[in-house]
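pls design
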């Protein structure tokens, strides 16, 4: 599903629907974009999550690499990983990046992005409190409804009520609900 969403975004970017860092142009033209714009934004968010627990784990790098290889092939994935390594050493304005993603990405695709970020956080079999805080912040910036956020979160952060939150019902819900 994430692959389909990302593919849709790349198609949209090629038609000029998304810009990570738009060039300054007169108001009567759309910003020029490249398919790389969305990937850079994705990598900025991934780097923020990876740094949020004060250590970058090999399992997290492997998770991102596997995703990039599946989406873009080995050669392009290696190039993007070099960019990720640079991003891990810098701080970026999550508000700005998230606002651009929110503006140019449809809501279902943003939900898939949240799945990706939670998968990344859980790549080491534990979602650290710092990672959860960063993902929550990104979720708010992306305009993710709280019920959707809690449902996705419950898939990765397990407790006794996780199944109920995934289904978006209360523990006292009937079988029909």
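designed seq:
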């Amino acid at each position: 599903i994430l692959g389909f969403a990302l593919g849709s975004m790349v198609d949209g970017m090629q038609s000029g629907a998304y810009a990570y860092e738009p060039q300054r142009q007169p108001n009567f033209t759309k910003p020029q974009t490249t398919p790389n714009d969305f990937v850079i934004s994705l990598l900025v968010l991934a780097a923020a999550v990876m740094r949020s627990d004060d250590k970058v784990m090999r399992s997290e790098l492997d998770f991102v690499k596997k995703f990039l290889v599946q989406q873009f092939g080995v050669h392009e994935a290696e190039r993007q990983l070099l960019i990720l390594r640079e991003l891990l050493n810098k701080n970026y304005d999550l508000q700005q990046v998230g606002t651009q993603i929110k503006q140019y990405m449809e809501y279902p695709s943003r939900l898939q992005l949240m799945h990706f970020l939670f998968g990344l956080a859980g790549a080491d079999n534990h979602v650290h409190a710092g990672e959860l805080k960063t993902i929550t912040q990104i979720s708010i910036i992306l305009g993710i409804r709280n019920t959707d956020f809690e449902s996705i979160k419950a898939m990765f952060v397990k407790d006794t009520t996780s199944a109920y939150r995934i289904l978006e019902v209360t523990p006292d819900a009937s079988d029909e609900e």
